Amino acid sequence: MTETVGGPTTDTGDSAAAKPSRGRGKTGAKRAPGLTVQRVFTTEGVHPYEEVEWERRDVVMTNWRDGTVNFEQRGVEFPRSWSVNATNIVTSKYFRGAVGSDTRESSLKQLVERVVGTYKRAGLEHGYFATDGDAEIFDHELTWMLIHQVFSFNSPVWFNVGTASPQQVSACFILSVDDTMESILNWYREEGLIFKGGSGAGLNLSRIRSSKELLSSGGTASGPVSFMRGADASAGTIKSGGATRRAAKMVVLDVDHPDIEEFVETKAKEEAKVRVLRDAGFDMDLGGSDITSVQYQNANNSVRVTDEFMRAVEGGTDFGLRARMTGEVIERVDARKLFRGIAEAAWNCADPGIQYDGTINDWHTTPESGRISASNPCSEYMHLDNSSCNLASLNLLKFLDSDDRFDAQTFAKAVELIITAMDISICFADFPTEPIADTTRRFRQLGIGYANLGALLMATGHAYDSEGGRALAGSITSLMTGAAYKRSAELAGVVGPYEGYARNAESHQRVIRKHAAENDRIRTFASSTPVQKLATEVWKQCQDIGQVNGWRNAQASVLAPTGTIGLMMDCDTTGIEPDLALVKFKKLVGGGSMQIVNQSVRRALDNLGYQAEQAEAIVEYVAEHGHVVDAPGMKPEHYEVFDCAMGDRTIAPMGHVRMMAAAQPFLSGAISKTVNMPERASVEDVERIYLEGWRLGLKALAIYRDNCKVGQPLSAGKGGDKKADAEPEKHVVVEQRPVRKRLPKKRPSETVSFTVGGAEGYLTAGSYPDDGLGEIFVKLGKQGSTLAGVMDAFSMSISVGLQYGIPLEFYVSKFSNLRFEPAGMTDDPDVRIATSVLDYLFRRLALDHLPYEKRAQLGIFSSDERSAQVENDYGTGEKLDMEEFRSSVPTTEERKETGVDPAPVEVGSSTELLELRLGKAADAPLCMTCGTKMRPAGSCYLCEGCGSTSGCS
């Protein structure tokens, strides 16, 4: 047999060739004797490790806010080409064994060998390879791609494969719940097990009777929303994988459920409660002590809408809500009014999202085995209930050749290698529940995807929101899924189709034909034509081989957020997202950090025809201003190529929707992406987005309007147990009247000038000669303005309270972390960022007037104290290798090429760097692990500092 890893050059005529000892598959085709793997990236006789320059590094990760040490491991081994960030994240997240023990992994080689070796052995054991030599080539090819950051498996693979722990390889799970108390309690249990393992789950609650229906006993049912409360509390208690982030979960309800209006309003009502409680002085940040009184905050909510409902919205007609047990219509509602309610709730608090049931099930490969009713928390995996999906993502920038053209042939071959490995993993994988294990083994759902699309488009001179950009994205996605299904058909000829294929053969073939037909509809441009042409050939081969063999996998592809693994691959952009901004934050090997113009900018300028001198001048301009508008020699018609998710020129919300629509027809699953909308967006804008998503054939869509939520995850400082929140005289038995201790006529004072988020002001603090702070005066705003008057009254109130004996630490605990505008960067090196003016003022007062021990309890330290903590924890350490340091710091010539400048000391991530440039706070949470500002990744948030995510990826 001559079955290779190639694309259309594969000799498929013998891919179903017989090996008598294997018998016949369920489709009647004879089984082939195993894959014959040919080399794509590697050289015979040369191990992949020998082609890489390796070096030893020290990984020391600290909390950016207070200097506490999060993780330390010295002397780890990585390729020299890997960034510090990728090294830190892989070492801290994926190396197994107790830190400091002999069993602790200390090299990327050990990690890769642990995972790839397991795949190779399982492939041999289960008959995937024709010979041991083919298995070794497979091993070398995967190894080469992993150490060169061409692709990555999802995080559970790195956590679990090849260890003594259960070898769970999936990050995405879908559960089910029926209308019985036993099933509902089992739902709580199964979710808890999945959350404990560090993954997320979703389910549809529509089988549960509504609160408008009767129980068999004659009483009224509680309804699904009431049971959501228990599940929400459970998720809030069980932190994913023992980490500090909350569990990730999705709750779906069908639009024809009688309780749909209550479901739609749940989180919007709770958000209103948050605002009232916050204004009353309660701590309502997601890490705050009072947030537990707010319900439904641990899940993403989505409404599953039907084509019938959407047509009723278009036509302005009524829509029937149906009883769960009988299916009869028990109430009719105005479809447009209900749709407006969904949009208003999303406008208020970003929930619920929309899932388009008609489109989802029209592209379903196994409808005879059950409908698709739910998704995972990030909405990219959609298949049968009680199932799971393991993911892997390719780094698209790695497939640009020397002329910056997309190498479609190599890409297709890489996809075939990776999908083979992903299918092998199901042979040995463990699962959290037996129903999930059974379904996954019978249908073998896979989710190959990609990252760095935004960087690829910019580097090749394509605007994200352009016909050419969408054509290239669609063609690449089509080729990826076509190559994956083609290999799946070839695997079916070797080890048999998935168990549920025979029953669903007609439907699966129909969906494959739909994919191929959509591929023919792509409007191509010069850059996308070769990719689309190869995709056409691959889809033809996929259909021909599948007609004979069937397919090994019920689904093949999704577009996931690629959060942590995106950092592992040193990707500039995650999933299908555009670039965050043109200037980003970068850590250096020798310590410290830099701000650097994204490499895609220079590549784009070269591809757009700018001369070297022009390109250098533009890059220098971008390094200084953060955008290309009015850059010297820059053509206005090229501005759109450099539009980003944030900054001075942002991509319009509908531009994101159109890009999703370009990729969706070529995916087995869906796309994890949130469409960000400006704060000024209206409810009607949300309605248009949701309606257009349906018309364009998306499977799911969610929006986020800037600043629509009050609570945001905040990092907790050292000892931040907020014991000082209790009033000091609460338990006094003998009632005493407070006595005011006035300041003397002449008292010492000091004045501090400050800037918070661009707002300037002055703080004057007057003290008793020997007994601490006694009064404050705050000058903010013009004399006679409302703001100045309010601040005068506030200062007087605080001063009188201090003189009546209220401790300063009480005020600090109450007013620090209070969020409102102006907020952002300050000019104070001890308080680099403030969530409000009051947050800054009371942190500054604490630093000036409270002893270290009390400030340590509140998590407030000066910059010198933070530095001293690090030095005390680590000592001065080994002498700095000056050669290594010099090699890590760009030279003057390199700075001219890349636009590198030292990063301001006030920032710890790309998002914070962008905030400093814009003079405006980004609506993103702080990482609970290391304290840096996170950045969007699909429908989640990702921390560039430590790799933590806010979702299931």
Tell the overall outline.
globular
Number of strands: 24
> Would you tell me the overall average pLDDT?
85
Q: What is the radius of gyration?
A: 29 Å
Give the helix proportion (percent range). Answer: 25-40%
Which residues sit in consecutive blocks of at least 5 with pLDDT less than 50? 1-28, 240-245, 712-735, 876-898
Give the number of helices: 29
Q: What is the beta-strand fraction?
A: 5-15%
Which class do the helix and strand fractions yield?
A: alpha/beta
- Biggest sheet character: 10 strands, mixed
End-to-end span in angstroms?
Answer: 39 Å
Q: Short description, anyone?
A:
The chain is of the alpha/beta class. Among the domains are: 12-169 and 390-565, no CATH class; 176-369, Anaerobic Ribonucleotide-triphosphate Reductase Large Chain, CATH 3.20.70; 723-860, no CATH class.
Task: Give a verbal description of the structure.
- There is one protein chain.
- The chain has 29 helices and 24 strands.
- Helix content is 39%, strand content 14%.
- Among the domains are: 12-169 and 390-565, no CATH class; 176-369, Anaerobic Ribonucleotide-triphosphate Reductase Large Chain, CATH 3.20.70; 723-860, no CATH class.
- The chain is an alpha/beta fold.
- Strands 3, 4, 5, 6, 7, 10, 11, 12, 15 and 16 form a ten-stranded mixed β-sheet that branches.
- Belongs to the ribonucleoside diphosphate reductase class-2 family.
Descriptive labels:
953 residues; alpha/beta; 3-stranded antiparallel sheet; disordered N terminus; RdRp_reductase_class-2; RNR_2_N; cobalamin; cobalamin binding
